[in-house]
User: What shape does this take?
Amino acid sequence: MPIDPTLPYDDNNIFARILRGEIPSKKVYEDDWAFAFEDINPQAEVHTLVIPKGRYVSWDDFSAKASDAEIGGFVRAVGEVARMKGLVEPGYRLLANIGAHGGQEVPHLHVHIFGGQFLGPMIARR
Ligand code: AMP
Assistant: This one.
């Protein structure tokens, strides 16, 4: 079920629990601002999620309320993970789903990094 991105942050969402170490994840990268781990249901050869450490429901919430340091740290972490995965030269795709039309299912901002193969059309055809 897609989430409502206008609701307040839920401290019990699954990515909050991963950040607190209550649920296991395949960690790829961590710094002061971000945590990256492998998607449990990969949609491409490489499918890694990067999440900010702060309590932000979505890209909307993050872009409106996060500090410049949080935003800078998070954006740099996404780039670092893609470099670590060797995705720059072959290319890759970033995706952040927001709310119902985006199909967002977890109410903690996450950027998907897809790569390792040709990724096809930008969005599904209707
Ligand atoms: P979205 O539809 O953008 O909210 O994407 C949520 C993503 O989180 C999906 O690709 C799921 O496969 C992934 N996911 C859900 N639970 C976990 C988990 N425990 N560990 C890793 N990835 C997860």
Remarks:
- Residues 14, 23, 25, 39-41, 49, 97, 103-106 surround adenosine monophosphate (CB under 6 Å).
